[in-house]
């Protein structure tokens, strides 16, 4: 990038304009970049902020559900071990892995493996 192009890019970042010197069509120009959202307009920053609050709420609920799953899993493992069995039941783990893979594809398998590790520790 030449020094004059770099100067244009820097000033566009500061003013919220494009490199050509004007805001994107239909957008409200903001005083500067919003590093916390990556948005360049007030409208986009507001939408992203709202959506992130929903994601934080969903993440909190997901974490709560994971903790609940860990507690239920611990009850099962404790009972099986107290009865003379083993902590791990691989055939059941295959069912859990298959359920997640059916619903979420290959990353679902990885997610289920992480959940199982959280619930019964590493094997
Ligand atoms: O379902 C069981 O038998 C459990 O012990 C629960 C669980 C699980 O967290 O899903 C945990 C350990 C076993 O290896 C299999 C499954």
TrEMBL record:
SMART domains to which the protein is assigned, alphabetical: CM_2
Top-level taxon: Bacteria
Gene3D superfamilies the UniProt entry points to: Chorismate mutase
Coiled coil: none
Compositionally biased spans, kind Low complexity: 7-32
Disordered as annotated region, ranges: 1-40
Alphabetical list of PROSITE patterns matching this protein: CHORISMATE_MUT_2
Domain Chorismate mutase as annotated: residue spans: 42-123
Record's protein name: Chorismate mutase domain-containing protein
């Amino acid at each position: 990038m030449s020094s004059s192009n770099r100067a244009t890019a820097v000033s566009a970042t500061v003013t919220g304009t494009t490199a050509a010197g004007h805001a994107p069509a239909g957008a409200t120009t903001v005083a500067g970049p919003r590093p916390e959202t990556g948005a360049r307009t007030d409208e986009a920053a507001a939408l992203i902020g709202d959506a992130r609050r929903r994601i934080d709420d969903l993440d909190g609920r997901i974490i709560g559900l994971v903790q609940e799953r860990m507690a239920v899993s611990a009850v099962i493992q404790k009972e099986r071990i107290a009865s003379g069995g083993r902590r791990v039941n691989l055939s059941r783990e295959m069912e859990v892995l298959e359920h997640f893979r059916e619903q979420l594809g290959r990353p679902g398998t990885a997610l289920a493996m992480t959940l199982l590790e959280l619930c019964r520790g590493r094997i």
